[in-house]
Amino acid sequence: MTTTASALEADATGSGGAALEIERVTKAFGAFVAVDDLTLTIPSGSFFALLGPSGCGKTTTLRMVAGLEQPSAGTISIGGRDVTGTRAHQRPVNTVFQSYALFPHLTVRENVAFGLKRSRASNIPGRVADGLDLVELGHLADRKPAQLSGGQQQRVALARALVNRPALLLLDEPLGALDLKLRRQMQLELKRIQTEVGLTFVHVTHDQEEAMTMADTVAVMNHGRIEQLGAPADLYELPRTVFVANFLGQSNLVAGTVTERLTKRGLLGVDVRGTRVLVPLARAVRTDGAVLVGARPEKMRLLVGDQAPTRGENVLGPGVVTDVSFMGVSTQYQVEVPGLGTFGVFAQNLLGGATVTVGSAVRLAWAVDFTFGLDGAQARDEGTVDLDDEP
Amino acid sequence: MTAVLDRVEATSTTTPARRPRRRLGDLIVPVFAALAFVYLMVPVAYTVMFSFNDAGKTNLVWQGFTLENWQNPCAAPQVCEAFANSLQVGVISTLIATALGTLVAIALVRFRFRGRALTNLLIFLPMSTPEVVLGAALLAQFLTLRVPLGFGTVVAAHVLFCISFVVVTVKARVSSLDPALEEAAADLYASPWQAFWRVTFPLLIPGIAAAALLAFSLSFDDFIVTNFTSGSYTTFPKFVYVSATRGIPPQANVISSFMFVLALAIVVLVQVLGYARSKRLRAR
Amino acid sequence: MSITAALGESVSGDSAPPPRRTAQRAHLVLLGPGLIYLVLFFVVPVAALLATSLYVPVPGGDVGEYQPALHWQNYTDAIAQFWPAILRSFWFAFLATVAALVIGYPMAYAIAVRARGRKLLQGLLLVLVVAPFFTSFILRTIAWKQILADDALVVTLLHWLHLLPADERLTATPFAVVSGLTYNFLPFMVLPIFAALERLDSRLLEAGADLYASPTTTFRTVTWPLSMPGVVAGTLLVFIPAAGDYVNASLLGNNTNTAMIGQVIDARFFKVLDYPTAASLSVVLMVAILLLVGAYIRRSGTEDLL
Predict the structure, then answer these.
(1) Residues of chain B numbered 186-225 and touching chain A (CB < 8 Å)
(2) Which of A145, A274, C214, C303 has the smallest count of CB within 10 Å of its CB?
(3) Residue A220 main-chain phi, psi, to 5 deg
């Protein structure tokens, strides 16, 4: 396995993939702006994820990079070469399509050889065999796509793209059609292959967990723009917009007004309905006026009865526990705080199951260091899962 | 769930009456359908049977079994000539109509353009025009332009009424193709020309073949339009119709039965092969 | 066989929107030859037909010689003289369509739903449906004539059962013509309905039963509405050719109470050489059918057939 992969890599053009530069690209379909003045640089050799809800412009962006769609404005460069005007078959880019788009009339082997034949590559049989070995499908080379399982089809699609050693590999929701268990397995597989061949992968997905598991860098897209870009952990721990806070994991957000600025301690004092909450200055998007104070559910803990918070903790409440769900590794509590709304709290099951019952009066505590501050002008529920929006 | 339903049914008062009625109802459709199939097949059986009739001049009454008609299918004057004409017209009309119709079908599915609705209407209209009107219209034109009637005008007319059927048949196939396949071909360095010939066209072949078969059978069996546009040129259906007044020779039944058996054999073979293949696939 | 798929498809409309692609004139190359053909051999001939329908005889000319004119009276004359044949054509076509639906729907249902999962049986039944296409249309019609003949089995049986009075016959009756029309166009009814029913998800029927619907109710509220596109396509495919047909009327009918408009048009053209009357009757037939079809499609809510 490793040998074939390194063989692929050794043959590959230079450093393994090329950088992608998208500069001020806009794409409009009639009055609808799918991608709005997007600028993005993806360094070579990285595993980059474009994450967003359906209709956010991520697939359109990918299609423009592939050459299947022409931008209305802006330029796209691959490895320093401007490819904006060229057509799909002239670009050193290959795509793993959402539906796989395997040619049903060709065998697995012929599917994988398709691109090599078009580019008149040398040693096609050998390279096809290597490609199939890489995805562990050598034994199914003579089957037709209809005779393969979903996961196998997905791997053929991957091999068909990879054998061409593209400067850039585009993955359009490649795991969307697989069931959960297979998806987890394929996530690891994809990550392994990317590490082995060292190509630049651009991965489009609406699954935040998938994006965080696989990518080095994640760009969260919404309404045709990039909301925030960074390493998965950074995005998660320090969201800069309400959309990111809600779309990537869950967040507890409460509205407040900045009342003081403790510059020496690097903190902001925020008044939340009469309670003072501290936010590190460096973690606040705004330092005056209306803000939203946020914390992740797993950072919060419940204070029962007179239990006191430790030093450096914010406290809100009291409130009432309205729901307790046992999740195995953790227990999820819903706490209703009058005037502030519902908070989610995840508690690890260190001592077995739930320790607090429904109806208990509790307060909420969490470390100031994990608090973040967002722009109070944004709607508090932006980016939350809306059942009607799900495809 | 089923258990719940059973209980609901059990408590409803209509249950005892409904159970047997449902079983009887289950039989109604197959029995009725079987009768309908008999209705459909009886005239065909008649046609085949009378190809063995030891008829003298007219083949209307059963007079005894003979194989002679099958041994000398061309014995009756003109019958084989008409048959050959029909084959010729059928093949040429099919080739032209299939080529033209396939191109139109691809354009209609794959492109959005101004005039698309008008094009669809232009495809639909010949199908919703009775043959007698098509024939009359073509004849009016041929008379006006003083075009001599014959092989050429018959082919022109047959291509016309076949095109629309080719377009709808191929269109269904094109729109069932995933557009992502062509995109995948382009993504794998295939030029539009290569993408069409290596991906789109091979996948369209079943639809094109079906359309061609349909066009051929429409052309081969057409009488009304042919009657208007053929002048003295005779096709097989026209020969049969014209000779109906003075007696159809049993050789016509032989030719018709032969075509029937041939077509049936081909279709059954294709069905059985397809069935065997799908079975083999499942076995893997 | 895939005419069924084709028709079903066109009735249900293009489900997938065509890919967003700016036309790069490629469509003109694809459309050009076919559309030019349709214009030359459909649009222009229909125009020629319209023109001919207004012609007048050349004064003092031979029989069959006409000159261009705008003689609208051709229409009123033709309708006044032949309205019974026109009405009868539509009436016969309507009866044949209803009969074909009554006979064809259970056939399609049996093939699509009852034989579902039994691929070989389904295939063979479909072959039987299209089998009549493989024998000559006219020979089959003549076979009908033989079957319905005075001394043949059917009439003898009906006489014996006293279902048909002893002095009545079946040949040369409206019944013979309508049954011939029904018979000849029946496969056109079965195939589109089969295509529609085949696409029907059997889980929908189970869902119907699960929601306490009796088989009859499930049929009325689930199966029938979902097969509507096939029914619409099938009725059109039977009605249109039946209304214009004259082979059945001339082979199975008589000259008094079964004459259909197609026969009249044919006779005017070839026997009387009365081109203007034949042309105006053709135009009347075409317009009437288009109006009926248009109204029918609109009513049944399947406009995207166009």
Answers:
(1) 186-192, 194-195, 198-199, 202-203
(2) A274
(3) -90, 120
DSSP 8-state symbol, B149 = P
Nearest to A18 by CA among A161, A160, A165, A148: A165
Distance CA C176, CA C272 (A): 27
Q: By the CB < 8 Å criterion, does C212 face chain B?
A: yes
CA distance linking residue C257 with residue C267, whole number of Å: 16
Q: Which helix (H) or strand (E) holds A314?
A: strand A313-326
- Burial (Cβ within 10 Å: 0-12, 13-18, ≥19) of residue A72: middle
* pTM recorded for the entire structure: 0.76
In chain A, residues 135-164 whose CB comes closer than 8 Å to chain B: 146-147, 160-161, 164
Q: Distance between CA atoms of A93 and A81, rounded to whole angstroms?
A: 13
CB A199 within 8 A of CB A168: yes
Task: State the Cα–Cα distance between residues B226 and B244, nearest whole angstrom.
Answer: 16
- Residue B138 contacts C, CB cutoff 8 Å: yes
Per-residue pLDDT of chain C (306 residues; tens, 9 = 90+): 333 333 333 333 333 333 444 445 777 778 888 889 988 888 888 888 888 888 777 777 776 677 777 778 878 887 878 788 888 888 988 999 999 999 888 888 888 877 777 777 787 788 788 778 778 888 888 888 878 777 777 777 777 777 777 676 777 778 888 888 898 888 888 888 888 888 777 677 677 666 766 777 777 777 788 888 888 888 888 998 888 888 888 888 777 777 888 888 888 877 777 788 888 888 888 888 888 888 887 777 655 444
Q: Name the residue among A98, A105, A119 with its Cβ closest to that of B189.
A: A119
CB–CB of B175 and C15 under 8 A?
yes
What ranges make up the beta strands (E) of chain C? 56-57, 66-67
- CB < 8 Å from C in window 106-135 of B: 106-113, 117, 119-134
The C-alpha angle with vertex B205 and arms to B181 and B156, in degrees rounded to 5, equals: 125
Please tell me if residue C123 touches chain B, with a CB cutoff of 8 Å.
yes
Interface check for B141 against chain A (CB to CB < 8 A): the answer is no
The answer for residues whose C-beta is within 8 angstroms of residue A278's C-beta and 6 or more apart is: A262, A267, A268, A269, A270, A314, A368, A371
